[in-house]
Give the backbone structure.
Amino acid sequence: MKREHVIKPVLDHHYPTIQYGKGVYLYDEQGKAYIDGCSGAVTAGLGHGVQEIIDAMMEQANKVSFVYRSQFTSEPAEQLAEKLSDLAPGNDYWTFFVNSGSEATETAMKIAIQHWQEKGRPGKNKVISRRMSYHGITLGALSMSGHVLRRRRFIPLLEDFPVVMPPYCYRCPLGKTVGNCQVACADDLATAIKRIGAEHIAAFIAEPIIGAAGGAIVPPEGYYKKIKAICEQYDILFIADEVMTGIARTGAMFGMQHDEVEPDLMALGKGMSAGYTPMAATLVKDHVMEPILKGTKSIMSGHTYSANPQSAAISLAVLTYIDKHQLVSAAANKGRYLLNALHLLADGIKIIGDVRGKGLLLAIEFVADRTNKQPFAPGLGVTSRIIENAFQKGLLVYPAAGAIDGEGDAIIIAPPLIISEEEMNQLVRILAESIREVMAELTPSTLE
Ligand code: PMP
């Protein structure tokens, strides 16, 4: 075999070479078509090869691609920050540009800590997160993440941040039933704050809808209102990790808008540039910036490529495209159609335990036994088998396995927001075949 130089996710796995992409399809060098059922990593929200974005890219490249943020600002960066604030709840956010979702959450953490330092409360420096959560792969972001599999090897290097229970209604951590629970899981945050002491806590971070660490887990109604009230009561900043949910994905511009809650800070990434360039951001409310403006007058963080005009111009074009093609409402409507199709699928396939999500951020959780929700043994690798089978058939879906403290099987279905009804039908058809084939491979004893 020819020597390889790119370090791949799985070193002994063969990855086809991509040739080009158009709309919801990707084509490899053999000419095989793949329907992008998860927008890569829930990123390529506009689909591939969109001419308007390519034009914007060229136009900016013809002016200037890079300037260093300590020397210049640029029109695209200023316009993008203004547009994000106009779109965000409350319209009073500043933007700190970064290059990945991990940097966006980690920067949010740092700004929250700096906020309290400037207010003369340096002891407030811990961040509470939830047991099922993923906020990124760098050590700071991983410290805030509950994702057992991704943390495991680095535990000695991570901050020992507290975690509270997740709003996971399919397997309620309190054994309650939806609609009859008074959203009791949110009270765990108040309990944790009292135990640790609010004087030690800077912020609470949560994904509006849990993504990779469980699969499109939508909290019960009223959850975030209660969470925000608890944060306010104890003087704790609320960080919404909108890296996966933000920018139209869930049928609202920001996931938190479903709950009518205004986070103090937001982390954005993925869909913000729809995969056309690495781009991410931390949005910070006026009142969080205020003591920093009066004090140090500088955020103690930043990266070489932060706020580069090339990426800003691309993101700006993405937001313009979303507006022009009304992709927020498209995500809501198409999401309802696809969710319904997945529910119909579940009727006939007994390893489907739960179908859930909002807008075009949907997921299926697989179980060995539907009646008692018994998960499959991790060694069976059910999630990866379904993903691999679908891949062979030309369908891409995203893993969300390991939700239950490292166990459990789920996949995310999150196609580009421009997907047609016919393409959604094709996606569901292939997915059904793959799940059925993997189900047939599993021995009957695993299923009874
Ligand atoms: N937060 C959430 C909610 C995410 O889904 C991800 C990526 N899956 C991240 C943070 C990290 O983003 P990145 O991979 O761009 O660093």
The longest helix spans residues 327-348. The longest strand covers residues 352-358. The chain has two domains: 18-49+326-447, 53-324.
